[in-house]
Structure formats: structure tokens, C-alpha cells
Amino acid sequence: MLIALIARDKDGALQTRLDNRAAHLAYIEETGVVAQAGPLLNGDAMIGSLIILEVEDVAAAQGWADNDPYAKAGLFQSVELISWKKVVG
């Protein structure tokens, strides 16, 4: 099952993002469930994340999201998990 994780950073949290970026990227690599990922941008500024997870169910996606170093660092203002269907690409 594909799940889109859409997270918006808290205002003024760029340093939190930068401080935890290496751990976040290592977590992506270690878990092996991320199909695609990248930051949401406002101009050149990173303001959130879009991550496509390939997991068994929404509960697995929630567990992944809860253990993301960005989430543990308190980076996000909001996180949405939405079932997603790949059509193109």
C-alpha cells in the first residue's frame, strides 16, 4: 500500500530541520519503505516534507512517521497520512 506523508514544518523551524537532516536521511535508508521523498519548498526554503511510503497498512505508516527523527525533534506543525495510488511514472 502506498501512503503519502505530507508534513508541514513549524514556523521558524529551519534550524531544527537542518540539525536533524542526517538522522532523517539515515532513517529513510535504514527502514527501506520510502519509495520517494523530498522537501516541500517556498522559493528555496524547505518548509515541509512529502514522503511516499510503501507499507502494509496505515498503522505501519503511522509508526514510521512517529519514529522519524524529524517528528521526534518536534519539527512538524502537522502531518497527514493519505492513501495514494500511483498512476504515472
From TrEMBL:
Domain YCII-related positions: 1-85
SUPFAM superfamilies: Dimeric alpha+beta barrel
Family indicated by similarity: Belongs to the YciI family.
A Pfam family hit: YCII
Protein name as it appears in the record: YciI-like protein
Gene3D superfamilies: Dimeric alpha+beta barrel
Domain of life: Bacteria
